[in-house]
Write a structure and sequence with these properties.
- By secondary structure, the protein is an alpha/beta fold.
- It is built from 11 helices and 41 strands.
- Helix 8 runs antiparallel to helix 9.
- The longest helix is centred in the last third of the chain and has 14 residues.
């Protein structure tokens, strides 16, 4: 081997091959080979990446027909040669360091990109392990048949330039398919039928002319799934698939951005209505196109929505018809843009079974109305939604576990008189619940309370019943909640339980505030005794929190002894609360131990 300088470029020779190179202007030690010469009789060319880091020979224009073998040594990464430079190469060999390319009969890199086929006279090309066909890789190649082409997922625009395949005629109203690759289409036809009756299409060559095409018909759904990203959205897609379509194909198909998808009438299992996939009788909605935005009216006559039918859809609103009888789990899960759901009277069970997750993570859904036909709302139906309000109608019987878990659900909730049962972990952020019926639904206490304080929410929940307003501590033990649910459902025990709800508060201040609210609404001697006993603690809490308004309201109740008021007066002075001082001085002057009320 020798190396020398020849005017503007350098070269070195090795085994009858001369490599001409230039140095990278930004990194002088890096060498870029842009031309070679091969002596007559040389059958092997070795590309030494220890000597030259990059081989860019696409502009060389030279041909070396005697070379049969290419050797790639070391970690060769960039080797670009025109397909016609070595037209008779039958073998590419890489040593254990040459892992950026594969050994074989063609030049294929470790990413599966076919760079050179070499075979000008071969009739068949084996594409096993090839995922991408690069530009110019077939130049001069006479092959017109492929085997093992199913692995090819991408075919560059100029892949077949200068090859025998480029000269093959395109069927009228159809497409030229070599192996499983669509090489070209009839660009003058309005409607194209793909030739995929025997084999599914794996990819379509990039850069095809779709300007005049209005529709494309596929015989196999797998073909469309594989190539849908290559087809303009405006083109109508017709599927002549007549077999049963697996859920994986349905998921891929409905992720398409095609403006219109139609299934042929010959399919015994399915049909399409406005691009949505239904069972052949039109009663079960199987899948709605995920990428379609805006509003959708589910057709009247539909009785069932299948699992994941609208999963991750772009829809903003949907109307569920009165003919609906069943919605299966996760039907609308992950519909992030869904903000309006109009459920018409008709369906009895909203969801079915456990972990139904009908509207799971529908973050834009803020309001929902449950129609009067619904009797049961299934478990976790609205789990993960950011609901702010829910309207119920008479007729509802049961709300199962974890249906309404939204942290934003803080407004008033009104429960219909027909409601018999509420499962756990529902409405735990609500401030006020109005119960329209004479009974308190079983499970309500367990549903709306928690076993420990999780956030700085109000200390109690207001329960407005037809003839009485109750106040329930927000945090009570699980055992206590279950006991209250049981006893409130027994008419002869209910009044006793209602009068002592405050006592189940898990925290002292929560118990006290609930008792104060209860006393204001329903004063009793038992409550008066309790509040007088803990008045010092109540005053201390208000003073430490500098909560003058609440403290004054408590003083007005007239529950404090003269000694308690004097102690409170001292605390108010020490904490600079002059308004509280004034109320206390007036109360002390006018009080005696027999007074039970006080007013200014």
């Amino acid at each position: 081997m020798s190396e020398t300088m020849n005017e503007s470029r350098e070269y070195f020779e090795s085994n009858g091959v001369t490599f001409y190179y230039v140095r990278n202007k930004d990194y002088h030690r890096a060498k870029i080979c842009n031309d070679i010469d091969v002596e007559p009789g040389v059958k092997e060319v070795t590309f030494e990446f220890d000597s030259i880091g990059t081989y860019e020979l696409m502009d060389s224009g030279k041909v070396f027909p005697e070379v049969k073998t290419l050797n790639i040594n070391k970690w060769g990464r960039t080797l670009r040669i025109p397909n016609g430079m070595f037209p008779n190469v039958t073998k590419v060999k890489t040593d254990k360091y040459g892992s950026y390319y594969k050994s074989g009969c063609m030049l294929v890199n470790d990413k599966g990109v076919l760079q050179n086929t070499f075979h000008p006279d071969s009739d068949v090309i084996d594409l096993k392990g090839v995922s991408v066909i690069d530009n110019g890789s077939f130049a001069g190649c006479q092959a017109t048949k492929f085997i093992n082409s199913g692995s090819v997922k991408q075919c560059r625009k100029q892949a077949f330039k200068g090859s025998a395949i480029e000269k093959m005629p395109v069927p009228a109203g159809g497409a030229l398919m070599v192996g499983s690759i669509i090489v070209d289409i009839d660009k003058n036809a309005a409607d194209i039928v793909m030739p995929d009756t025997r084999q599914a299409i794996s990819t379509i060559r990039e850069g095809l002319d779709y300007r005049n095409i209005q529709s494309i018909t596929f015989n196999k759904i797998q073909s469309f799934v594989n190539v849908q990203e290559r087809i303009p959205e405006r083109i109508k897609i017709i599927l002549k698939e007549t077999g049963f379509i697996g859920h994986d194909m349905i998921d891929f198909w409905t992720q398409s951005k095609a403006s219109c998808l139609e299934l042929c009438d010959e399919n015994p299992y399915y049909k399409t209505i406005d691009g949505a996939l239904f069972t052949n009788d039109g009663t079960v909605l199987i899948k709605y196109p995920s990428s379609r935005a805006g509003h959708y009216d589910i057709p009247e006559g539909t009785t069932t929505i299948a699992s994941r039918a609208f999963y991750s859809c772009e829809l903003s609103s949907v109307t569920i018809p009165s003919s609906m009888r069943q919605i299966l789990p996760k039907a609308f899960a992950e519909c992030k843009k869904l903000s309006s759901v109009d459920i018409r009277d008709g369906i009895k069970n909203l969801g079915i079974g456990r972990s139904t997750l009908l509207f799971y993570n529908c973050n834009s859904l803020k309001h929902i109305e449950i129609p009067s036909s619904v009797q049961i709302i299934a478990e976790q139906a609205f789990d993960g939604c950011n609901l702010e309000s829910v309207k119920f109608n008479e007729g509802l019987l049961q709300i199962m576990d974890n249906v309404f878990t939204s942290s934003l659900l803080t407004r008033d909730i009104t429960l219909p008189s027909t409601l018999d049962y509420i499962g756990g972990s529902n409405f735990q952020s609500v401030k006020q619940i109005t119960v329209l019926g004479d009974k308190i639904p079983f499970g309500l206490i367990s549903a709306v309370t928690a076993a420990y304080e999780q956030t700085k929410k109000s200390k109690y929940i207001t329960l407005r019943c037809p003839n009485k307003t109750l106040f329930l501590p927000r945090y009570i033990t699980v055992t206590s909640a279950e006991w209250l649910d049981s006893n409130l459902s027994i008419p002869s025990f209910r009044e006793e339980c209602e009068n002592s709800l405050y006592s189940y508060g898990e925290l002292a201040d929560m118990k006290q505030e609930t008792a104060i609210a209860t006393y204001k609404e329903n004063p009793s001697s038992d409550l008066r005794t309790y509040l007088r006993r803990v008045s010092k603690n109540i005053v201390g809490g208000y003073v430490s929190g500098h909560n003058e308004t609440e403290l004054i309201e408590f003083i007005k109740l007239g529950l404090m002894t003269k000694k308690a008021m004097q102690d409170a007066l001292q605390s108010a002075r020490e904490n600079s609360m002059p308004t509280v001082e004034a109320y206390l001085l007036k109360a002390i002057n006018e009080s005696d131990e027999s007074n039970s009320t006080f007013s200014l």
